[in-house]
Design a protein that fits this description.
This protein is α/β, with parallel strands linked by helices. It has a single domain (68-392), classed as Arginase, Chain A, CATH 3.40.800. Helices cover 31% and strands 13% of the residues. The protein contains 12 helices and 11 strands. It has helices at 5-23, 30-33, 41-45, 106-113, 149-164, 197-208, 246-252, 275-282, 292-295, 297-309, 341-349, 374-392; strands spanning 71-72, 86-91, 122-123, 128-129, 136-141, 186-191, 212-216, 262-267, 285-289, 314-319, 356-362. The strands form 2 sheets. The protein has a 9-stranded parallel sheet, with helices on both faces. Strand 7 (212-216), helix 7 (246-252) and strand 8 form a beta-alpha-beta unit. Helix 4 packs across helix 12 (374-392), helix 6 runs parallel beside helix 7 and helix 10 crosses helix 11. The N and C termini lie far apart (77 Å). The mean pLDDT is 91. The structure holds manganese (II) ion. The site of manganese (II) ion has 7 residues, from loops. One of its GO terms (molecular function) is metal ion binding. This is Agmatinase 1. One of its GO terms (biological process) is putrescine biosynthetic process from arginine, via agmatine. Belongs to the arginase family. Agmatinase subfamily.
């Protein structure tokens, strides 16, 4: 470094300024008053109506980042006895993807994208404030091992089942649609690659029986395990579930509502054979293509969905690649010609009245996002719409 006279003069000036600043007595200075022990920090930092940590997360740009500023809860630990109506969990898993990985960072990416949302803020077009109807907590992420997919998916299955087995904080007049007649919490899961939907569906089917699935995606995901094997496989070796075959397992296990009461929305991915479409129908589905939004409009798409699922309990799973990569580039298998954020909001809001027993948002891979986090913001807003649907309709018969 060249130490010029001008620079050394500047350094002297700066150090003089620092000395002056140090000698200034700042107006408050609790630490110097000797009264630190006497201060009631609960009164200073917590809102009068809420002695929890609400004040710490009141503004969108600071605090512990939970989904839409839901209260953080150690659902499997110290807070295991606390009640809630919706548990948000993260499923940081991406080792069953066929193309670009990275969705293990999805849960925290979606939380980051949700910082300007709030479970206690009003969703204007949906005309609902979630917290008026539901106590939503963020349980953090389920630990999923990185070395064995089978074990990881079983971990998620157990955690989800544990949350669903609880009784929800609120109960309702009328009969619950759950098989045991009780009211259970609902789970909103932040993925993770799409494979996570299989253990999650096992959970809701256990509580409610087979469910109608509304599947937003550009891909069918009903492929038999073999075509998804990813190359030659050893003789007699089991082909594990992947993010393209989990719905085949769900159908085989009887988790899906019968009579083709399940619908894919936004489909546009290339296929290897028309047989894929025939088998998809055989496995319990009907299809709404991405271009339907152009051809029949969001109202036509909503009508198709409502006609398909009827009065069944509904599980919503949304692969972020249902959106156009122009508005949501951060995903593993992007497909052009997708749905816009405005359209997905209209479609979701059109589902008001359905009994949503659970939901997930998957395949958000923040590593491919733009610097302004557009995919994460889109995913978070979709999760917020899902909560609004849950808030509007209790799970009563
Ligand atoms: Mn997909």
């Amino acid at each position: 470094m060249v130490f010029s006279p001008r620079l050394s003069a500047a350094v002297i000036l700066a150090s003089q300024a620092a000395q002056i600043l140090c000698s200034i007595q700042y107006p408050v200075g609790f630490a110097n008053t000797g009264t630190l022990d006497a201060l009631n920090f609960t009164e200073i930092f917590a809102a009068p109506e809420d002695k929890s940590n609400a004040r710490w997360e009141r503004d969108s740009f600071h605090g512990l980042t939970t989904f839409a500023r839901a209260s953080p809860l150690r659902c499997f630990g110290a807070d295991g006895d606390s009640g809630y109506d919706v548990a948000v969990i993260g499923a940081p898993f991406d080792t069953a993807t066929s193309f670009r990985p990275g969705a293990r960072f999805g849960p925290n990416g979606i939380r980051q994208g949700s910082r300007r949302l709030g479970v206690d803020r009003i969703n204007v077009p949906a005309k609902v404030r979630v917290s008026d109807h539901l106590d939503v907590v963020d349980c953090g992420d389920v630990p999923m091992v990185l070395t064995d997919n089978k074990v990881a998916l079983r971990q998620l299955e157990l955690a989800n089942a544990a949350l669903l087995s609880r009784t929800s904080l609120r109960s309702y007049s009328g009969k619950s649609i759950a098989k045991d007649g009780k009211f259970h919490p609902r789970v909103l899961t932040l993925g993770g690659d799409h494979t996570i939907t299989l253990p999650l569906l096992r959970g809701v089917a256990g509580v409610y029986g087979p469910v109608s699935v509304i599947h937003f995606d550009s891909h069918l995901d009903t492929w038999k395990p073999k075509p998804m094997a990813g190359g030659p496989w050893l003789p007699d070796e089991e082909i594990p579930v992947s993010h393209g075959s989990y719905f085949w397992y769900a159908w085989k296990e009887g988790l899906l509502a019968p009579n083709n009461a399940n619908i894919h929305v936004g489909i546009r991915g290339a296929i290897n054979s028309w047989k894929d479409y025939e088998e998809d129908h055989e496995f319990g589905w009907v299809i709404s293509h991405a271009e339907d939004v152009e051809d029949v409009g969001w109202k036509g798409v909503v009508k198709h969905i409502l006609e398909t699922v009827g009065d069944n309990p509904v599980y919503i799973t949304l692969d972020i690649d249902v959106l156009d990569p122009g508005v949501a580039p951060a995903t593993g298998t992007p497909e052009i010609g997708g749905i816009t954020t405005r359209e997905i909001k209209k479609i979701l809001q059109g589902l008001s009245g359905l009994k949503i027993v659970g939901a997930d948002i998957v395949e958000v891979a923040p590593g491919y996002d733009t610097q302004d986090e557009i995919t994460q913001i889109a995913a978070a807003n979709i999760g917020w719409e899902m909560l609004a649907l849950m808030a509007k309709t209790p799970l009563t018969e």
